[in-house]
Design brief:
Radius of gyration: 19 Å
Strand content: 35-45%
Structural class: alpha+beta
Order of helices and strands: EHHEEEEEHEEEEHEEEEHEHE
Shape: elongated
Helix content: 10-25%
């Protein structure tokens, strides 16, 4: 039976015309599936479905998602990430924070910590990422001891937060890559019109069902950022909210709304 599949040009180029046509005709394409983005059931015979190809160094995995969640696309991941993403199809984990890769800062290095939580904004629970380095961030090539984390983000389109209850403005070109039910990366505009990873998890970051549902409903994520020591890793979302409000009052909190990624 023919499937209501979307196969992007990038995916077709990777898997070949023969395999793409076979998928569209119903071969090798499941009728029912768990959406690789929102993790809820889907049916490619009844609703538009995106083909999402995860490509590692040596292997590739084809997954399926509601077309309303993410478009058909090719997602490049490390071999380790690919194995973790495959495992996440059948094993969901609950987590709020994750280790991240080191960020080059001249002669020093700092690590970006990301906490996933729900933030009440204008009476609605929204999926949020709270980013805070574990030390000062200098401009590339600089040996200054000044912390340029906030100035760099302001230059890249983020806006100061004066009221946490207000919805942050969008930042064009930035997006959050949520795939196979986990957070993979925060993407920023690249030099050639494409997107590049601004932050990428060592391993895909599991998020709560409530966080994923809020992100899927809004089709966007709110990202907040503050300098090292401004917020900390709070054990509860109410304490996180208090820390964010304190940072906003001190003028050291910036934010932006960004869509779920589609490359």
């Amino acid at each position: 039976m023919p499937r209501m599949l979307d196969v992007s040009d990038d995916v077709r180029a990777e898997i070949g015309d023969e395999e793409a046509d076979r998928l569209l005709a119903g071969g090798d394409a499941p009728g029912s599936y768990d959406c690789t983005s929102c993790r809820t059931p889907g049916d490619s015979a009844q609703e538009r479905t995106s083909t999402v190809l995860f490509v590692g160094e040596e292997t590739a995995v084809l997954a399926f998602a509601h077309a309303t969640c993410i478009p058909s696309q090719v997602v490049s991941v490390s071999e380790e990430q690919l194995k973790g993403a495959v495992q996440s199809i059948t094993a969901a984990q609950e987590s709020g924070t994750a280790p991240t890769r080191p960020v080059p800062v001249g002669e020093r290095q700092a690590t970006l910590g990301i906490t996933c939580g729900l933030v009440l904004v204008s009476g609605e629970l929204r999926a949020a990422l709270v980013v805070e380095p574990d030390g000062p961030i200098a401009r590339p090539g600089s040996v200054s001891l000044d912390d340029d984390f906030l100035p760099l983000l302001l230059e890249q389109g983020f806006h100061p937060v004066t009221d946490v209850d207000a919805l942050p403005a969008p930042n064009p070109g930035w997006s959050a890559l949520l795939a196979m039910g986990k957070l993979h990366a925060v993407l920023q505009p690249g030099n050639t019109g494409s997107q590049a990873a601004w932050w990428q998890a060592h391993q895909p970051l599991a998020v709560s069902d409530g966080w994923r549902a809020a992100a899927t409903k809004a089709q966007s994520v709110l990202m907040y950022a503050a300098p090292s020591g401004s917020i900390g890793h709070q054990p509860r979302e109410d304490l996180m909210r208090q820390a964010m409000e304190k940072a906003a009052a001190q003028g050291v909190l910036v934010a932006a709304e960004m869509p779920l990624a589609g490359t």
